[in-house]
Amino acid sequence: MALVTKCLAQFTGLVNIVLAIALLNGCATLSIDEQQEKRIELNEMSDGTIATLLETRPGASELLEQCLGYAVIKMQVTKIPVFGAGGGYGVVKDERTGVRSYIKVSRFELGGGLGAQVYKVVIFFSDEKLLARAIAGTWHFDAGAEAGAGDTAIEGNVNSAEEGYRAFKIAESGAAATVTVRIARGTPYLN
After folding, report:
1. Under a CB-based contact definition with an 8 Å cutoff, are residues 177 and 112 in contact?
2. Is 0.70 topped by the overall pTM?
3. Nearest to 36, CA basis, from 117, 114, 100
4. Which residues, at least 6 apart from 91, have a Cβ–Cβ distance to it below 8 Å?
5. Which of 35, 83, 86, 102 could covalently link to 77 via disulfide, CB atoms 3.0 to 4.6 Å apart?
6. Is the per-residue pLDDT at 152 higher than 90?
7. Range of the domain at 56
8. Angle CA(83)–CA(29)–CA(15) in degrees, nearest 5?
9. How far apart are CA 37 and CA 141, in angstroms?
């Protein structure tokens, strides 16, 4: 019974934090100048991450040349024993048109694990529908295991049924070890 009470208290605390962050984000309105500064910041993050990936991962340049578009998202995730939450911002670029769209991502987890981590995700899209969904905002569900510390990360996903993309995770800082079911939601931002 004490374990259930403890888990319920942790869940309630996490929900309160997530709701507070959502409320603050919902209330924040950026001026036109601030929006332009944020676009520049996200473009620099995206371009730098792609450059790092091309330098460190064999085959990434071929994926970039062949893809219809790609997404680069910087995430911050915190995981307590049963629940986890995080969020980030990123860029989705349609390579056919050169148009960049900006997204905001929220992520929730349920499962075992503990930690906090900052990382970037790069997704190369070869499926036109998946690229369009990334630009428009969509829910994404998967299950998997992750372990990471500092700038080293290992990730395994059970969700291999959905093809049409190739994803890479580049850890920046923190440490985490999880086995979870994840739900992520991307929504348009600065568009």
Report:
1. no
2. yes
3. 100
4. 42, 43, 45, 46, 71, 72, 73, 100, 101, 102, 103
5. 86
6. no
7. 2-188
8. 15
9. 32
Give dist(CA 170, CA 46) in Å, integer.
12
Evaluate whether 101 touches 46 at the Cβ level (below 8 Å). no
The pLDDT score that the predictor gives to residue 171 is 83
Paired with 88 in beta bridges are: 75, 105
Enter the tokens of residue 81. Answer: 């024993």
Q: What angle do CA 47, 48, 49 make, to 5 degrees?
A: 90
Residue 171 parent element (H or E): strand 165-188
The number of domains in the chain is 1
Distance CA 119, CA 149 (A): 11
DSSP string for 34-59: HHHHHHHHHHHHHHHHHHHHHHHSTT
| Beta carbons of 143 and 183 less than 8 angstroms apart | no
Structure tokens at 155: 């990730």
**Tokens at 104, concatenated:** 């905001």
Distance CA 82, CA 18 (A): 15
Dump pLDDT digits (tens) for 10-66.
Answer: 544 544 454 445 444 444 577 889 999 999 999 999 999 999 999 998 889 999 999
**Six-digit token string for 44:** 């620099």
78, amino acid identity = T
